[in-house]
Amino acid sequence: MPSLKKYFVVALLLITANAFAKNPLTITSPDKKISFSLNTDKAGLYYKISYKGMVLAENSRLNISFKNGGPFANDVTFKVVHAEKLTEDYELITGHASKIHSECNRAIIPVREQSGAKRMLYVEVRIFNDGAAFRYVMPKQVGMDKVEITAETNTFNLSQNPKATVLLRDNFTTSHEGIYTKTTLDKLAADTLMDMPALFAFPGGAYMAITEAALHNYAGMYLIKHNGVLESRLSPLPKEPGIAVKATLPHNSPWRVMMISDRVGAFLESNILTNLNEPNKLKDLSWLKPGKTTFPWWNGNVTPDWLNAPGNNYVTNMYYVDFCAKNKIEYHSVVEYGLHEWYVNDGSGFQPGPNADPSKAVPGLDMQQICDSAAARGVGIRVWVHFYALYPKLEQTFAQYEKWGIKGLMCDFMDRDDQEMVNMQEEVLQCAAKHKLHIQFHGAYKPTGMQRTYPNEFSREGTLNYENDKWGNLVTPDTDLDILFTRLLAGSTDYHLGGFRAATPQNFKVNYTRPMVMGTRCHMLAMYVALENPLGMACDYPEAYVGQSGFDFLQQVPTTWDETRVLDAEPSQFLTIARRKGSEWYIGAITNSAKRDLKTKLDFLPAGNYTAEIWSDAPDANVDANHLVKEVKPVTRETTLSTLMASGGGQVVRIYKGK
């Protein structure tokens, strides 16, 4: 990277034999509210973080270890450097906003061991108004042109015993789906992996979310509580469990990010992760078109009785394509029929067999004909593919997709975030961009802001979502709230939205075909605004929508946004969020299993007269969860809306200029 080489040259020019000293270094955010202090002792580097004068993390270690030479901790000293202000403006296709202004104070700190091999590295620190981040930058040096990193055991020694909302994991092989644990830090299970982002609420009113940014050619990071203190853990290489990262120098780690605010909603507005990523590497973006998509696998491939010979064929897919064309649904996803993929595969249970070939459709399915017919109706075709069927035939498959006219795909079943898998996923993005394909990673690790660098990364799953309603009852309005304040902080998440058979907990039944969803229909509608997902699904079958209350909102709601504002929020309880697309605003409010009456001020609107279309839970939604009421009324920025939600309910509002 030219920018890193520039850092090395500048820093090395400043360093002399006696330039290193044991002096503390403090860097603050531009607004002076966040303070990061770095120091050393006999055990190595440690840092402290304060917010508005309140210590959030004290005596926390920076620890990185190598196969050759062991931990970087041999009487280390660092050069005290002056922080510089870094500002940047850029645009995003997907994210919380479309036009981003980034501002932080940055320092690149040379650190050297005074004994042993006398190795050297840099710690780069960036402090934003909404968080702090650091990473290791490893230059090439005498006797050290390659590294094998065995561990990063950075610690996050949080003060005040905060309340934690975390997803515990058994091991590093995971789809990142599960129920969140909510307890105080001292009661968290010891030596158990925690997924990221993880949320911590301090008694003094501050919040911290810990995650990582710019995961590139490196191992994914987790947390663990060890000896009472949070430590990081790196996902090991599958065939070399003692090694996490192999790299040729120069090289750098991802950013270790601590989002910080006294307003938890600020984390859902924050662009800190994309700020920490490299700029867009794709020159032509004109072909990238986010939008809503069908996903018939979720509903069980329901077709009407009048459809001639349903199956993995033209007529079944065109039944869904015609529905899309009539109802402002941009994409149809070709997935499977009768539990067999749309492509050639001699495996079972959607797992690839030895002759799986996702560049070839099953007999009877003419993909060229489907793509051409859909394009004539203004609908794009997407497909689902198993990662391990795709990767061995990556170039061959993507070249065929481009020839057919496929616009993108869901890539599924990775369930790893070791360095090898991280690199393979980046290779998928690069090859997909070459062939003008967008990517939706399913069964994948959290986002790390890489959609700035590769804008064709539209969405990632890594969360328990409504697909689980086909076989269980774990997904509830309460779990939706937990995910919004943890996993969603990292970015877009791939939920199977659009189930129009809402049910109260007592009426919910597990159905593989025509699944139910728990919570009210208004709760489902609000998830289109609450979640960030450039490929929001309409995953039910056409007859489930046509003529149904609330379908008009699903047709209208965008999937990308120009601005995001959290109006009111309390973790695990409720969220009211407003997102702007052009001149229109959309508000989504959801609650957990408790009924709730909130007041939503519209003072974020510019001056003028507006019309609000409001979809709310009906008074009997606690009995008929699909019942909602719609109201149209004039509003201004002085208006306060009443947001009355049933248990597991929600509300959505569309606001546009004029009457």
TrEMBL record:
The Glycosyl-hydrolase 97 C-terminal oligomerisation domain, residue ranges: 560-655
Residue intervals of the Glycosyl-hydrolase 97 N-terminal domain: 27-279
InterPro entries documented for this protein: Aldolase_TIM, GH, GH-type_carb-bd, GH97_C, GH97_catalytic, GH97_N, Glycosyl_hydrolase_97
UniProt-recorded Gene Ontology molecular function terms: carbohydrate binding; hydrolase activity
Signal sequence extent: 1-21
Entry-linked SUPFAM superfamilies: (Trans)glycosidases
Residues covered by the Glycosyl-hydrolase 97 catalytic domain: 297-462
Cofactor: Ca(2+)
Keyword Metal-binding: no
Keywords: Calcium, Hydrolase, Signal
Pfam families, per database record: GH97_C, GH97_N, Glyco_hydro_97
Subunit structure comment from the entry: Monomer.
Protein name according to UniProt: Glycoside hydrolase family 97 protein
